[in-house]
């Protein structure tokens, strides 16, 4: 077994066969898949009860996940990795890929998050999509998403993971463009799909490379053989996986799609573009810990991407007036924290997953809260038209406030525990990274307070004819549950439970020496966050918020409003040159390649025009040519004989 | 011996020139027969000289083929003549570019 410099061992995946309740693991995927099939193939027949079926399926999966979790917890630590072999998938020559499901502590947590938060969002959607004529189809797509996401998490090999990876990409595309009659939604869906393809190229190449290096795509076999590969190979593999992760998790430089993805219905933004799908990149890196632990350079790349994304997303979050886009910037930033944790190696894996879970709770909560606000404000998303909603929507306000306190890291709330731990691990690793992460926390405090104040406090800036009202119970109950989870999510850290729970998967957390005591770091972070909050209060509570965004603003604000020119960078660096390359190729194709072949054809045709004149139709001329031929042949034979 | 070969060559040349210069299909046909018979003469002459039967057998084959050819050829000429009222080979020149 390979031993890290820090003295910890990189764990290998060594699963045993599934028995008892764990044998039901396939049902977790099969239920939502069945739901999607019935709803999408059943057509209008299922319109009346489709949303109930669509909600029942993830709830069923959640119940099974819970039973399996209890069973897994009752086992010995070394017995907690279980594989369920479903069927032989691809057996060709040296390539053997099986449809195997790996259920281990990491997958168990994800299963609970996806099916749990997923079920709540399904329930919420019943209310949110009530007046949409295509509600049944919406639930079909949501079920499809849940099934694909579970496939991604449960697969025992990279190929099966990729199947789910593409499945969630498809579901994301379908749901972003769910209101495809809106041009912007159709465009946003296309953009998300195309940018994700860039990441997928990295992912596919990584799978090819893994197969070339290890002759297998299975986690079990790769983790057992990884010790034999060179560090260079591992670095390349790690960077390719990172490219894939960047695409799916909207990290710089493949971040531009996430803000446009907010065109989708709000429950989609909550489920796919906040709580689950966008965290798949983090999952990928944590799952591939046996690669990254052997490739310090790839880990550095992950950390760099993460830090840039934290600050990039935070800057966007500060400038957007669209409530969903501000939350999307925040999602990007928070995923940056998870990536940072994942990039720190065994010191951060568990905290990355911990933050992923707490973020899943509080961000889903806030997105659904934003949806509830929009529901009451006639689908207006501009926060400059909100204000003083805390009286009109008390439940939404209170639940949103829980999410808000969690994300800024108010002591005791879930985000406090998870973010603090990541910053602590970052400082132990490299103080520059740590300070950047701390700064990000401060900016988070600023933009979330801004969002909170502009929406629920300050002054009424409602448009004419808008009468904000509280949402129905089917929407508020999921909010209350998620708010409770946002508050209590930190409990996972009690007695270091989550760290011990994940140790069999990601390895022992190494001892690290902090330059300053942990308590001092916590206080410092709180101080920075408090400064951010105070700035926001001074700017948005003490002063009147203008109803139209001011145009006389600094360059920094303009840049942040334009998403730090992410789209322009893509346009200038990739799309523009790509388009020029294609038009150049077109010219070459038309004049060069086509010219060669068309010219060849024309030459042969012209030659034929000349040669066909030989066919006169006069028998006597044919006779003459035969005679000449005979004479020539005879002469040739004589010449050879002589 | 030489005489036979010379006569055969003369007959063959007459036949070949006739095929090339004459327009009447019947005459062209006759010239073709002349060439066949010139080669028959050569075959028989060489067979006699070498004292075996192979050349003579070949001559019989040529005769049989010539007879068959006459049957088909004359029938074609007859048909063309019926439709075109002409036996000139130059008139039947539609099969061209």
UniProtKB/TrEMBL annotation, chain B:
Keywords of this protein's UniProt record, alphabetized?
A: Cell membrane, Membrane, NAD, Oxidoreductase, Quinone, Translocase, Transmembrane, Transmembrane helix, Transport
Reaction(s) the record says it catalyses: a quinone + NADH + 5 H(+)(in) = a quinol + NAD(+) + 4 H(+)(out)
Source taxonomy: Bacteria, Bacillati, Actinomycetota, Actinomycetes, Propionibacteriales
Instruction: Note the subunit structure.
Output: NDH-1 is composed of 14 different subunits. Subunits NuoA, H, J, K, L, M, N constitute the membrane sector of the complex.
Q: Which gene encodes it?
A: nuoK
Under what name is this protein listed?
NADH-quinone oxidoreductase subunit K
Query: What Pfam families does the record point to?
Result: Oxidored_q2
Its function, per the record, reads: NDH-1 shuttles electrons from NADH, via FMN and iron-sulfur (Fe-S) centers, to quinones in the respiratory chain. The immediate electron acceptor for the enzyme in this species is believed to be a menaquinone. Couples the redox reaction to proton translocation (for every two electrons transferred, four hydrogen ions are translocated across the cytoplasmic membrane), and thus conserves the redox energy in a proton gradient.
Name the EC number(s): 7.1.1.-
Q: Does the keyword Methyltransferase apply?
A: no
Residues that span the membrane, as ranges: 6-21, 26-46, 58-81
Q: How does it sit in the membrane?
A: Multi-pass membrane protein
Molecular function terms from GO = NADH dehydrogenase (quinone) (non-electrogenic) activity
- Compartment(s) of residence: Cell membrane; Membrane
- Similarity annotation: Belongs to the complex I subunit 4L family.
Identify the PANTHER family for this entry.
NADH DEHYDROGENASE SUBUNIT 4L-RELATED, NADH-UBIQUINONE OXIDOREDUCTASE SUBUNIT ND4L
Q: What is its main location?
A: membrane
